[in-house]
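About this split. The held-out portion is used to measure sequence recovery: a designer receives only the structure tokens and must propose an amino acid at every position. Recovery is the fraction of positions where the proposal matches the reference. Here is one held-out target exactly as it appears in the evaluation file.
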């Protein structure tokens, strides 16, 4: 478990390194370079470009880490590349170079993620899969906190705001890598330089990816229109609605961490991942529907906390299920694909949520946002229904041969 905690620290440092530039740094740089232009549209385009880079880089470097057995090397190289990209953000002379710098930072830090995914599964006992999954799921939320703290503390010092955490990661990650057991390059490395489609095409792994995507989609879509729901349904002023949205976001985050840690630190971790996933999806459907039907803001907040706990449970269970469905030798690629679902869902969520807002579908409500929450329960229920038909890794692959 000590090795998992060390890797969780590395993952937290990587996440934190991306947080301050994404939340504040890029906004400042876009305004600096484009004072009288379409700042919002330009910022959205840059962030989207970085997300696409992350979507490709995470599984790509996971596959490379698996194939070369140089996971520690890639971990350190990724920290250096990410730091270089963040440094380039500070001196980008134009929007084009700013975009290239942000893509470089995303590629570098996703190299770290690919290496971490492989290192987590190496020598991981089956009994520890769910515990490790819970720790790493909690880190997905907690890891953002140092970056947010750096943005707040160094608000008047742009360089420190952007580089404080990446610099810490640049120093700490090589030390972390030195504490990890080494890996010798395989004698058959050349023969392994192929994409192991058969190992990631099982129904069990497909279920894990689908569930992760649906859960991440609900997480991203669930609060997109919360401000409008508060103002339209309960006729609150903007300041009161903003305060409640902030509280709801905090409660959801606490629920995610709490749900993940509760499984990791208690006997709940011995429950089969499929069962945990079913519990998480069921609770998420309940919390999502309750938000859609909430008669008061208090009920909405309680339902948001329930949904957060369910998301933490679902994240933990889906990662544990994916790890049990993957050979350790190909875990970097497989978990990279799982992480890609997290990246893709927020990109789709705004468009999907907007399409699901259907005023009048709930006769006793004046807003259409309740319909969005209710309709979001459909893909959650479909994933839950697929759990009984998923099969473990030893079952026949979804493709017979590659």
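Reference sequence for scoring:
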């Amino acid at each position: 478990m000590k090795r998992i905690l060390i890797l969780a620290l590395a993952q937290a440092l990587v996440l934190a390194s991306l947080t301050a530039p994404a939340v504040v740094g890029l906004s400042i740089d876009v305004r600096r370079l484009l004072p009288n232009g379409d700042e919002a549209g330009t910022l959205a385009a840059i962030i989207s470009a970085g997300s696409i880079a992350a979507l490709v880089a995470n599984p790509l470097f996971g596959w490379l880490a698996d194939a070369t057995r140089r996971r520690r090397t890639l971990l350190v190289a990724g920290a250096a590349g990410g730091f270089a990209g963040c440094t380039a953000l500070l001196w980008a002379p134009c929007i084009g170079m700013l975009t290239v710098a942000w893509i470089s930072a995303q590629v570098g830090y996703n190299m770290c993620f690919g290496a971490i995914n492989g290192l987590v599964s190496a020598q991981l006992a089956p009994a520890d899969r769910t515990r490790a999954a819970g720790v790493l799921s909690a880190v997905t939320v907690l890891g953002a906190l140092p970056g947010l703290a750096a943005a707040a503390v160094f608000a008047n010092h742009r360089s420190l705001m952007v580089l404080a955490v990446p610099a810490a990661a640049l120093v700490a990650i090589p030390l972390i890598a030195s504490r990890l057991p080494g890996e010798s390059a395989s004698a058959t490395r050349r023969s392994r330089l192929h994409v192991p489609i058969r190992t990631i095409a099982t129904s069990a792994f497909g279920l894990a990816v689908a569930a992760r995507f649906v859960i991440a989609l609900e997480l991203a879509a669930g609060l997109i229109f919360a401000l409008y729901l508060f103002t339209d349904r309960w006729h609150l002023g903007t300041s009161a609605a903003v305060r409640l949205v902030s509280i709801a976001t905090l409660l959801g985050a606490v629920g995610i961490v709490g749900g993940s840690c509760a499984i990791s630190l208690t006997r709940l971790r011995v429950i089969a991942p499929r069962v945990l996933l079913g519990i998480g999806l069921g609770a998420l459907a309940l919390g999502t529907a309750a938000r859609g039907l909430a008669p008061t803001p208090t009920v909405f907040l309680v339902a948001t906390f329930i949904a957060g706990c369910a998301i933490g449970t679902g994240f933990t269970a889906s990662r544990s299920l994916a790890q049990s469905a993957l050979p350790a030798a190909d875990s970097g690629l497989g978990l990279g694909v799982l992480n890609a679902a997290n990246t893709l869902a927020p990109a789709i969520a705004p468009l999907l949520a907007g399409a699901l807002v259907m005023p009048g579908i709930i006769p006793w409500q004046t807003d259409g946002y309740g319909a969005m929450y209710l309709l979001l329960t459909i893909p959650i229920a479909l994933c839950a229904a697929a759990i009984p038909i998923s099969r473990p890794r030893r079952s026949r692959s979804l493709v017979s041969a590659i």
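Annotator remark: The two ends are 36 Å apart (CA to CA).
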